[in-house]
Amino acid sequence: MSQKSFQTLRGMRDVLPQDAPRWQHVEGAVLAAFGGYAYEEIRLPLLEDTALFKRGVGEATDIVEKEMFSFASRDDKDDGSLTLRPEGTASCVRSLQQHGLLYNQTQRVWYRGPMFRYERPQKGRYRQFEQIGAEVFGIAGPAVEAELIMMTAEAFEALGILSSVELQLNTLGSGGARRAYRDALVSYLTPFAAELDPDSQRRLETNPLRILDSKSARTQEIVRSAPQLPDFVDDEAKKHFDDLQQLLTDLNIAYQLNSSLVRGLDYYTHTVFEWVTSALGAQGTVCGGGRYDLLVELLGGKPTPGAGFAMGVDRLVLLHEAVHGAQDDEALDGLRAPVEVYLAVADESAQGVCLQLANDLRRALPDLRLRTHISGGKLKAQMKKADASGAELALIVGAQEMADGSVTCKHLRGQALVGAGDAGQHTVPMTELAAYLARSLAKSLAH
Ligand code: HAM
User: Fold this and answer.
1) Which protein residue has the closest C-alpha to ligand 1 atom 2?
2) How far is the CA of 247 from the centre of ligand 1 (A)?
3) Cα separation of 267 and 136, whole Å?
4) Is the entire prediction scored with pTM above 0.70?
5) Above 60 in pLDDT, residue 416?
6) Domain span at residue 92?
7) Angstrom distance (rounded) from CA 406 to CA 350
8) Does 32 fall in a domain?
């Protein structure tokens, strides 16, 4: 009886070898762009105390209400609940605070890795997805938001997708302004409660600001005449926002003001921003962030200003493909790591010698990509595999070669080196093989 085979869980994805180069390219370009900003990497655990996200992200958010992968702790000493992180900001605050790295200093950190949200999967929305994010602590002025936004713009420019994304910007004002606005919004919406969609009805009590970005047509119609958040923003917050806009203008970074942009996490104050694209359908936000000056305190620390963003790498990869096409561009070709040399083992007794020889060659030529044939079989079949691998050169070691310390080199494509025999074949002493390969493969090894 055959055994059941397995599939990925819903919302989880494999990145297969043929797709991995695009991921490497996207992640590499983003991190290279970040490199110039001298932020430091921070690596954080995937599992945290559930309460961290409840308090940090907000009890009434979709993330905490419906989307967390939470389970009971198995530790006897601790009867709490654990959660696979749905985002990185709360963990980052937890970490820097725990290690005393937040006070009387500034911190600029970046992180990457998987996040988990129990969402309904669709293109661009997964239950495990990758983020690359950055957070800055200890700087209150709007130049931080400008720097963070500039960093994201640089990364998008490096990926060739800047013209496919639009920066949307809003301010939520200070904590006080947000509370006053929330009260005004609830007073306005309460008489319409019965007409709102069910999610918005629930949010009227728990998280009224999220009603602003409801997808329901009737709710949107009601919201259109609601009090406007900008009218509640105090003068100081207005100045902060104006100054940020001036900085962005000076930096030549185009933006759109969007007064209904409130973001799905509760910790923001002042600036919120998103980079959105129309090229990916419904899941068009490739990056989101903002300022969160109250979060450190909320998580038990001393008041410390903070700001940051996170990019969705899955969506950046989709967008990169949508913009550049499925066709390989040069950057991806360089990452595809083709096999350059295929080592055929013509006699089973040569396996040990071949493994050693292969390793010596890799050490001598660090850029060399050499694959050994270690699955046995006839030489003819091995040469077919060599050809299919795309290698330029096949090396053959059998009983004869072992006996006289040589290797047969067969050029599989294009011009053989001058001096090679008619069949593009050459016998080279093992001791001279590295130098021979270096000459034969000079072009591809230079990449
Ligand atoms: P967020 O908007 O929840 O913010 O997520 C940031 C980005 O992660 C989104 O713009 C999107 O590209 C990607 N993303 C979110 N959920 C999914 C999903 N289910 N599938 C694929 N991609 C997804 C945060 O997480 C905040 N921590 C950002 C931040 C950092 N704010 C301040 N500092």
Assistant:
1) 288
2) 25
3) 15
4) yes
5) no
6) 20-174+233-324
7) 12
8) yes
